[in-house]
Amino acid sequence: MFSRASVWTGPSGGLPGIAGLIGLALALAACSPPRALEAARVLADVAAGSEPSALKASTPEPVRRSIPAPGAQSLLGDLYWPGEDAAAVLVLVPGAVEQGKDDPRLVAFANTFARARFAVLVPEIANLRTQHLGPEDAQPIGAAIRYLGGCVAPAERAGSVGVAAISYAAGPALLAALAPANRDLVGYLTAIGGYYDVEAVITFFTTGYYREDPEAPWRHRAPNAYGKWVFVRANAARLAGPTDRMALAEIAARKLDDLDADIADLRARLGPEGRAVMALLDNPDPDRVPALIDALPAPIRADLEALDLKRRDLSQLPFDLILLHGRDDPIIPSTESQALAAAVPDDRVSLYVLDRLTHIELSPGGLLDGLGLWRAIYQLLSRRDALPPPDPARCRAEGETALGGAAAAAGTR
Question: CA-CA distance, 263 to 7, in Å (whole number)?
Answer without folding.
Answer: 45
